[in-house]
Amino acid sequence: TFFSLYFLSSPLYFQHYFFNMGNIWQFIIRFDILPGKMQELDTYLEQEMIPYWTSHKEVRSVEVFEDAFIGWPERMLVVEVDDLSCLERILASPQTRQMKERFTSYATDIQTQIVERVFQKRSA
φ, ψ for residue 112 (rounded to 5)? Predict the structure, then answer.
């Protein structure tokens, strides 16, 4: 379920296993769009969800990707943060819970993941 990794884990679990200052973290939401809800979802993402995430100064960026082929997931939202404890605070907020409820009226097959950047090399 949406944000299940957060809600099933205690804050101490996060601090012990995920806290690592100076690294880049990504909160990834993979999902399919409910039939007939694509336009409503896009409007919701552009007008509410992305502005909500970017209103937090700890959030570096928010990106939405669409599958180029017919496959799963149809969409992927990526929220990039510097500090995992800030992400935990955002995920625990009542506003995030409200966003979740609205989001689930447009999306299905929702999966979440938190990943840490290990390597990055940009081409010249």
Answer: -125, 155
